[in-house]
Design a protein that fits this description.
The protein is an alpha/beta fold. The chain has 13 helices and six strands. It is globular and about 55 Å long. Keywords: ATP-binding, Magnesium, Nucleotide-binding, Transferase, tRNA processing.
Length: 309
């Protein structure tokens, strides 16, 4: 996706724990530019350990946007992010020719690169009915419905996130059409070029990195972080991997070893879904960050991308 401009957005995408932060910082430092985060969980200032936010040293290594920028009590939607993210990128382009977008949240990356389709709103009674089903029968029943109604989105979405599952079912129940059918209607032309680099590695290595990251989160105090968020347990921002499992432990539903294993399992499943999403984007140039130099790849893509296309 290119535009007749000397301004270029380099996108660094891929599954969790693959090394996106380090790659983005390397690019930002070389090009003397700034990083815009498209990680839908790292927006929230109350959630740090469980979202694997960049460390203090990493944040100091390059300017970052949308890290701890919002409270879990705020309703920051993908539509909100599109507007704020594009504004931040355009501000960077006032002084720089290159900006870096990094994240594993496919819908948020897509919103910046292609625009966000306005989804139909659902009647309140539809949402209420789905919330009642969640409360009385658990998320399993909603996951099954989504798998039948929209297998395309089911294969991509974090199915352990009730907010995402319910939103998709809302659209389906209100319109009779799959949620996925509304996401590709129009691709917005951006006033800057976009090159996309995807990071991936052999599955067993990625899964080992995920397991090690979860162990490090526990050692760094994830349980205490989640405990501090108990008053916000009901908020959608906290219906996410790494938090729901520890909430269940704190509420006495499971023991801690089980919670930790579930965090690892659900994170591995989430990574698989992230890859399913990004593999559908044929503009992504895939590399193995342990074997390929992201900077060399970025330079080659910048040289070969034609601003006239």
């Amino acid at each position: 996706m290119a535009a007749a401009t000397d301004k270029t957005l380099i996108v660094v995408a891929g599954p969790t724990a693959v090394g996106k932060t380090a790659a983005a910082i390397k690019l930002a430092q070389h090009f003397g530019t700034e990083i815009v985060s498209a990680d839908s969980r790292q927006f929230y200032k109350e959630m740090s350990i469980g979202t694997a936010k960049p460390t203090i040293d990493e944040l100091a290594a390059a300017p970052h946007h949308f890290i701890g920028s919002h409270s879990v009590e705020e309703n920051f939607t993908v539509g909100d992010f599109e507007k704020a993210g594009v504004n931040a990128i355009n501000e960077i382009f006032r002084f720089k020719n290159i900006a870096v977008l990094v994240g594993g949240s496919g819908l948020f990356v897509k919103a910046i690169c292609e625009g966000f389709d306005e989804l139909p709103s659902a009647p309140a009674e539809v949402r209420e009915k789905l919330n009642i089903q969640l409360k009385e029968h658990g998320i399993d029943s909603l996951q099954l419905r989504l798998k039948e109604a929209d297998p395309v989105y089911y294969a991509e979405v974090d199915i352990n996130n009730p907010q995402r599952v319910i939103r998709a079912l809302e659209v389906f129940d209100a319109t009779g059409k799959p949620f996925s059918s509304f996401r590709s209607a129009n691709v917005m032309s951006r006033p800057f070029r976009i090159v996309k680099i995807g990071l991936n590695m052999p599955r067993e290595i990625l899964y080992d990195r995920i397991n090690q990251r979860v162990d490090a989160m526990i050692a760094d105090g994830l349980v205490d972080e989640v405990k501090s968020l108990l008053p916000y347990r009901h908020l959608n921002a906290l219906n996410t991997v790494g938090y729901t499992e520890i909430f269940d432990y704190l509420e006495g539903k499971i023991n801690l070893p089980t919670a930790i294993e579930l965090v690892k399992q659900h994170t591995r499943q989430f990574a698989k879904r992230q890859l399913t999403w990004f593999n559908n984007d044929k503009e992504i140039h895939w590399i193995n960050p342990s074997e390929d130099d992201v900077l060399k790849v970025a330079k080659r893509l910048l040289e070969t991308s034609n601003p006239g296309n």
